[in-house]
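Allow me, if you will, to draw on your knowledge of protein folds for a short while. Thank you for your consideration; the sequence and its tokens are set out here:
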Amino acid sequence: RKVVPTSDGDETRAEDDSKPGNNPGEEVVAEAEGKVPFGKLYRYASGQDKLLMIIGGIFATAIGSSLPIFMMFFGDLLNIFLNYNKVVACAQFPIPSNASSAKSFMDSLVTSFDPVRVQELVSTSPMYDIAQKAYENGSYTFFFPPSTTLASNSDSGVLNAAFKQMYDDQLGNTVPGATGLDRYNSPLANSLWYTACSFNNSGFIPSMQVAEYLSGTALLPFSGGWNETWLEENPSYPKDGEALKQQAYFYTILFFSLAAAMFIAGYMRMAFWKMAGERQGMRIRQAYFRALLRQEMGWYDVSKVGELGARLSGDPVAIVEGIAEKLGEFIQNTSAFVISIVIAFLQGWQLALVMTTVLPLLGIATFMTTKLMGSFATKSAAAYGEAGAVAQEVLSSIRTVVAFSGENRESEKYSKNLVTAEKAGIRMALVGGLMMSLLNFIIFAANGLGFYVGAIFTNEGVMEGGDVLTVFFAIIIGSFSLGQASPAFAALGKAGGAAYRIFTVIDRTSSINPLSKDGKVPTHTDGEVELKNVVFKYPSRPTVTVLKGLNLQVKKGQTVALVGHSGCGKSTVISLVQRFYDPLEGEVILDGVDVKDLNIKWMRQQIGYVGQEPVLFATTILENIKLGKEDASEAEVWKALDIANASKFVRDLPDQLLTSVGDRGVQLSGGQKQRLAIARAIICDPKIMLLDEATSALDSESERLVQGALETIMEGRTTIVIAHRLSTIRHADAVCVVDDGVIVEVGSHDELMAKDDGKYKALVNAQTGTMLGGDAKDSSGSSKETDSVLPLTGEEESIDGGAKTGVDEKNREETLAVTSATHAIDNEEKKESEKKDGTVLTKPKFSDVAKLSLSEFHVLIAGVLASIIDGVIYPVFSIVFGEILNLFSLQGEELLQRAGFYSLLFLILAAVGGLVGYFQYFCFGYMGERLTARLRRLAFRSILRQDMAWYDKDENTSGKLTGSLEMEAALVR
């Protein structure tokens, strides 16, 4: 089946799904066991929906890419700040063209030396004695006079080999190509600049690093020797403070622009995915509900009806969440991960390669966790579905439950399913906590490793500080994005499972499809019904043969009564005539045509049905009657009510046709409901009437009114009656006695009573108490004539299986009138009345909800403490981050030592973050599952304690109450 857009391109409709084998997605079920493949989830997406999702995907990709790109620009800005000191130092250091200018700069630099640092340095030097004397005498110009044996030969004053080597290593590399400079005998050799280059066992300390230390000034461009082309190679770096401000302003505007773009993209992503998802969700619900209406009765016999209804509220929500909002999040986080990795490798592939070694660990942890959580989520959903089915069954038959004091039994049954769901949810919280713990530990540990390796690369000149931080945060963003993508991925899996349950029903080919357009549609109907050699078994009881070659013929306009003991197959005949089931053998024929060859909808429109316990829906009288004929006018409705003897009591109601009948018609008496059911049955002017114990549950007065209506509608129509009243059977054209799945006697009432050993006479005598061969005579035709001929039938004949106590019709009508009038008062009067009755519910405080979790108080304390610690981790991380920014202005051992310290701090944060992440997720997940189950349990028990008048209110129908138990308790969590 295809889903095609309508003319406006907005809504969609399903193509004809009536033909067997033409149902949508039959191949889907075969492709996966318990889960629908990803591509098949979008079978209800129209072209407009696909466009919305494509645009939403583009915005999701954009917002996912924005943060890594932001960090790339941030790294560039950081490089500008870190190198600004280099630029300033370079600007004040003239390129020496001769020895004089070089010496002038050196001497000026000496004046900025910190005496304390000089003292500290020379105290560790092998030349301590000489250096100390020179320092004490204030001799800065000639720290090593020519007479010093270390610097030169005492006789000739020529520099010795060691000091000459120092010139080659330091001066020659520092001032290459300076004209007019005597590299060995210049006074520059005797300045404090080179005195600072003290000799130790490992060689000479690089002069510029010592100068940096002594002056406290960063001279990084010159640490490896003078580079006169450095400024030319880095034209983007600001040359002065004004240029720095301009570049900072540029990046400020850039960051604000990115923020605005992220805001717009975030809104668009959410809006487009939400719209596309909700539109598809609506169609899925419609298709599922339509599929439920399409199924044959045999399928319902073997299905859990309550669970099917509960799925309508839960599973489509999971599907929509997975295919729309969560998919948008998945695309966003996946794009953030991919872009982050790309930027990291572009900015510094060496460091990125080191940090990405942990990604397989993240992937394995995420995959295993998602799989386990999906399994537990499925078990939890199934258990909640079972609980919902119990609630639906109980609340829809609440009067029967209360009548037999079954509240506690049903409450325990409901709670049993909640326990199963609760255990699955707690296991899911346990696995989720482990996932959070692993993710936190791996991510923080990887960051610590990456930071230390980045410091090494910076110290060796492989990378700049800003690039290290760009790679560092790109990997962090990518890692977190990968972690955040896992819940979205899990939601996709959950959507696949929910879709399997929903689509399996939608895709099922009904053997009797009432929505089918196939079959003959005759222009005229006589109403002759015939069953030929019918053999039938109910799908729910395949070992029991109900009908065993039954034959029955009902001619046009004839009234035939079916009698027999309970379970003999009378109501089965009614079901076969309506084609609720198909016989295993034999034929059911209407006007000479097998009903299998007729269009089902047309055929059922020719039949009016009134059962023992009429089912009315929780809407108005008008809407209930129009279910028999959708396009019926109000005049036709009143005419049907007149025929059914119901117009009088309806006109006496304040709202008349607009009166709400309540859930299953609880606002009405049995007689009133039955007469409305008769009006609904005859409004389409059917040629065939099927009456199944239509008066068995009524009191005498109600029966009189209903029986009068039935006699009216039976005139001129082919009628099959299952009855237990002599008055009905006596006037039938033929009485058929059904026994053990076949008709054993046929004749009029008088003919059958004339048979001394007949089955019919035995049944009548057994119920009336007369002697065999006698007759049930009562000239008045009152009480004795209304005695039962047959017991109330069970099994397939009755859905609820219970009889309703009769209520005085007049009093009931007066009660209904009062109830209807009450519904007519305005809202303010309602509120005032509710306040007086004390029924107005106030919004509960958080403390009220918290009291429900007192039994898990110790778990709450652990969760709160874990949350506090987890909240502290990120401020600590921000402090560490600030120190990291300062750290990359350093070099050498100090850089590596401090980098090692902060890397160790990252490992500590990893351990703490992993531990508290586990406790936080598990503790609150555990409490949430317990609270959800407890709320459902308490709410269900409270519902069962209410009086019957409470159930009569429109806001307390079984459907609304079941929906509240299903959805609202979960929201509290």
